[in-house]
Write a structure and sequence with these properties.
With 240 residues, this protein is an alpha+beta fold. It folds into 2 domains: 60 residues; 150 residues, Heat Shock Protein 90 (2-Layer Sandwich). A 5-stranded mixed beta sheet has the order 2-4-5-7-6. Strands 1-3 form a two-stranded antiparallel ribbon. A hairpin with a 2-residue loop joins strand 4 and strand 5. Helix 2 packs antiparallel against helix 3 and helix 3 crosses helix 6. It binds adenosine-5'-diphosphate (ADP) and magnesium ion (MG). Magnesium ion binds next to helix 5.
Length: 240
């Protein structure tokens, strides 16, 4: 019932109003007032993210997450995600590098959902890596799959917790000592969404303080499928 409520329109509509007016205020206000407006805006943005997480979790729990799949190049998604998160990394003086293969990496996937997966993995990498850290994005083809990796040189994950992090609401750090952050459901959404696409996701780390690499795989489209291919037409025998 709680997650139904949080995901609901009742909560999103007033938040939209807060976001709208806080943006307006920040632009108009001067001096200290502008800082207050920024604090309101930042918190509202944070809250919107929590609500989005809850909504996605809820959709997955009730098996309602539907995919709009189409041929797409994984390289484009990764490059777009990098562009989106460079400002966030800049704020912590972190670098985000990207290594892409020369050949297209075509999968049949839901663009929005792939962006959601990448956004979760990259924001985690930024959040759980110290200032000045390094985040390396890469993708490549391996055994009929596209492999996508988000690697950081941050605080790492102990062997004990390396699987637990994919459980809903699991967080390594005690909730009372967390400064910022989410609800601990990002990675369970990632795992559910990757599975829906027929892929796998896992984490590797040499231990605490030694960085973490998250890898997810997606089945590659059959050779010959191009991102420019037209949508399949309805066959002549449908309905007979
Ligand atoms: N790149 C990472 N480096 C170290 N720990 C991580 C990383 N990504 C996730 N974690 C750990 O896994 C937990 C669960 O992650 P997630 O499901 O995204 O929830 P949240 O980020 O909201 O806490 C985090 O709280 C953190 O303890
Ligand atoms: Mg997270």
């Amino acid at each position: 019932m709680k997650s139904d409520f949080i995901a609901s329109h009742e909560l999103r509509t007033p938040l939209g109003v807060i976001l709208g007016y806080a943006t307006f205020l920040r632009e108009e206000a001067k001096g200290e007032a502008s800082e207050y407006a920024k604090a309101v805006l930042d918190s509202a943005v944070h809250m919107r993210r929590l609500i989005e997480d809850m909504t996605n979790l809820r959709f997955m729990e009730v098996g309602q997450m539907s995919l709009q799949r189409e041929p797409m190049d994984v390289r484009d998604s990764l490059a777009d995600a990098r562009k989106e998160f460079v400002p966030l990394a800049d704020a912590k003086a972190q670098k985000i590098t990207i290594a892409l293969p020369n050949q297209p990496l075509i999968v049949i996937a839901d663009r929005g959902k792939i962006a959601l997966i990448l956004s979760n993995l990259i924001t985690n990498a930024i959040r759980y890596t110290q200032d000045g850290g390094l985040i390396e994005l890469s993708c490549f083809s391996k055994g009929g799959e596209a492999w996508v990796q988000v690697k950081d040189n941050g605080r790492g994950i102990s062997q004990r917790d390396i699987e637990n992090v994919f459980q809903g609401f699991f967080q390594v750090e005690d909730h009372m000592v967390r400064k910022t952050g989410g609800l601990g459901i990002g990675l369970s959404i990632v795992r559910g969404t990757v599975k829906l696409h027929g892929g796998r996701v896992w984490a590797e780390s040499d231990g605490e303080g030694k960085g973490t690499t998250f890898t997810f795989t997606l089945p590659l489209a059959r050779p010959g499928t191009s991102s420019l291919a037209p949508k399949p037409k309805t066959g002549p025998f449908i309905g007979q």
